[in-house]
Amino acid sequence: MYEVYIHVPFCLRRCGYCDFNTYTAVDLGNGASRDNYANLAIDEMRIVKQWQLDHGVDEGPASTVFLGGGTPTILKPQDLARLVQAIDDTWGIAAGAEITTEANPDTVDADYIQALADAGFTRISFGMQSAVPRVLKTLDRTHTPANVAAGIAAANAAGLRSSVDLIYGTPGETLDDWRTSVQAAIDLGVDHISAYALTVEATTKMGRQIAAGTLPKPDDDDEAAKYEIADELLTAAGLEWYEVSNWARPGQESRHNLGYWRNVDWAGIGPGAHSHYGNVNGQGLRAWDIPHPKLWAGKILDNQVPWAGSETVTPVEQAEEQLMLGLRIREGLDINTVDPRIPSTIWQQFVDEGLLDAAALEQGRAVPTRKGRLLNDAMITELMEYLG
Q1: Among 64-68, 287-291, 292-296, which is the least confidently predicted range?
Q2: What's residue 11's pLDDT?
Q3: What is the DSSP string of 100-119?
Q4: Please, what's the b/e burial string for 165-190 (b: 16 or more CB within 10 A of its CB; e: otherwise)?
Q5: Are 150 and 174 in contact (CB under 8 A)?
Q6: Domain ranges in the chain?
Q7: With 90 as the cut, is the pLDDT of residue 219 above it?
Q8: Core-most of 77, 130, 142, 291, by most CB within 10 Å?
Q9: Nearest to residue 337, comparing CAs of 353, 318, 350, 351?
Q10: φ/ψ (deg, to 5) at 68
């Protein structure tokens, strides 16, 4: 199985909480051009394909494609169409492939979304974040709840699947605010909803506001309560959790994201994008692109793979990844395949502590309960202590 991720690093403005590799026109100055971005990304595909051939890595066709950012829909729809076509030309795209783009609701209309459908996209992930205007303002989001509804209606009309992303734990957000947002997302009729806890980085505008005391720091107990609210409401609406932060109606899961959690191979295209290959000269390999668009572009123009670095995956790291990924998803972790240094008694201990599902363990799989999802990091930390 093979996936392709394209990172589009451009945004109209930088949200105060965002620590992703994104740039506005002001950030970039004369360093890069949105208009030329698709050409450079297509050139990178060619260079990466040659690297794969030179290193005996036989990939393709792509079973999923995902355009993330940043804001991919800040580009012209023709550019997104060209990127998809270039993936097909380079590696092939499998029949029935899932092809997704993220979208800021402010940047798309019905004509844009129809153009995506005509280009072969099958799915749009809208950055909703909240349905409460006051919370959206704290997050520096410019869209309104009505923009989200309009985008989903247009996607439905074009025959595309829709997903929405929510964020909980925004400073000043009440439990009732969060219930309102989750219910609003459900009422949109989408088949996939992601809900992520707000992570505040010191280098962001919000991080500086919290450090200065002008915004309150997110509270772990508050975020745990909001996770439980989301799980209760989404489950009652028929959306099942399939990964710690993701719920979907059966059969509507994000196949691309499941690929990450199943540790498949993928090529990352674009500034800061990561790649993963399970077998390069008998070893796993991780690589990551240069984050700044100007420096990234320079490498491509020199016909070089624009990696900032790469590393082989050691056996210990492979064991750690197996734990971290397997314990995040509903299908769980096959306990018969984990590192033998992990004692078999630990799984029953986690069941006794309410962290793992007892029935699943009888079938040889470690599947987290709701409590286990909330304490996922603690479980993984305890398991990793056995790996040295």
Answers
A1: 292-296
A2: 75
A3: EEEE-GGG--HHHHHHHHHT
A4: bbbbbbbebeeebbbbbbebbbebeb
A5: no
A6: 2-259, 317-387
A7: no
A8: 130
A9: 318
A10: -125, 180
Mean pLDDT of 177-205: 91
Whether the Cβ atoms of residue 289 and residue 296 lie closer than 8 Å to each other = yes
Hey, what are 60's tokens?
A: 């393709």
CA triplet 30, 85, 268: central angle to 5 degrees? 60
Q: In the numeric block, which tokens belong to residue 132?
A: 């409460």
- Interval 55-99: pLDDT, tens: 999 998 999 999 998 899 999 999 999 999 999 999 999 999 999
Cα–Cα distance measured from residue 225 to residue 41, given in angstroms and rounded to the nearest whole number:
42
In this predicted model, what pLDDT tens digit does every residue of 141-178 receive, in sequence order?
888 889 999 999 999 999 999 999 999 999 999 999 99
Interhelix angle 110-118/77-90, rounded to 10 degrees, is 10
Q: By the 8 A CB rule, do 292 and 271 touch?
A: yes
Amino acid at 191: D
Contact 164/194 with Cβ under 8 angstroms? yes
Query: Partners of 96 in the beta sheet?
Result: none
How far apart are alpha carbons 265 and 105 in whole angstroms?
30
Tokens of 240: 């099942």
- pTM exceeds cut of 0.70: yes
| DSSP E strand boundaries for the chain | 2-8, 62-69, 93-103, 123-129, 161-168, 192-197, 240-243, 246-248, 265-269, 274-280, 283-289, 307-313, 333-334, 365-366
* Distance in angstroms (rounded) separating the CA atoms of residues 72 and 44: 17
Kind of pairing between the strands at 283-289 and 307-313: antiparallel
pLDDT category at 215 given cuts 50, 70, 90 is confident
2-259: CATH topology: TIM Barrel (3.20.20)
